[in-house]
TrEMBL record:
Species assigned in the record: Flavobacterium hiemivividum
Bilayer topology annotation: Multi-pass membrane protein
TM regions (residue ranges): 7-37, 73-91, 97-115, 127-151, 163-188, 195-213, 219-238
Identification of the protein by name: Probable membrane transporter protein
Location, primary (coarse class): membrane
UniProt keyword Membrane, yes or no: yes
Lineage: Bacteria, Pseudomonadati, Bacteroidota, Flavobacteriia, Flavobacteriales
Family, per entry: Belongs to the 4-toluene sulfonate uptake permease (TSUP) (TC 2.A.102) family.
Amino acid sequence: MDTPILVLTIGIFTGFFIQTIIGFAGALIALPFLLFVMPLSEAVGYISIFYLISTPIYVYKEWEHIDKNLVKNLALSSFVGIIVGIIVLTYGKPIFLKKALGLFIILFVLNSLKVKKEFQIMNKMKHVFGFMGGFFSGLFATGGPLYVMIVKNETADVKTFRATMFASLGLVTVMRIPVLALGGFLTLSQVYNSLYVLPFFILALFLGKKVYLKLDEVLLKKIILGLLFISGIALLIGS
């Protein structure tokens, strides 16, 4: 196994292990690993492949807990955001946007530690956050934190939050794949290389589920906010 495949395996395993436990952060965790050995556009392609594989598994297992109306409300704005994000990925060098996303995430976490009524205004901004989530999903495959902000605000318990995050990110992936393919960011060689990683990816899903079943709801909420904060810092200071 050569170095790029090894790093790809470590990144995908780690990212989707965390993703299975809390419902998001797969791309945020995997992306820094992948960027050591490949350009951003290629990394987004690989992450999208594994999101596409994981989506039917997650959705099938968590179907009864998904807030389906919320997912439907986010669909159109997310699709528009994906298209705009991939256009920027194609023609620009939007590193400053990654830093802006990092700062935004940090401010959200700090605000979440305060009284809940302070961010209820987000109920009126679903489509804006859906667009932003789609935009950063198309651009960096890291739109998850924006969906967290909506879904966390709209769901009453961790089970519903986690399941709805799986569905939201899965929907974004299904919409993103054909746009990436048309833009030339997905190749047959990436699909071929992904086959080497697939057994470790499946292991990550299995172990993540085992760990999730052993964690209580309060701890999961703390992990969610903690990972959001860390991902915000990483995006803010990363190059």
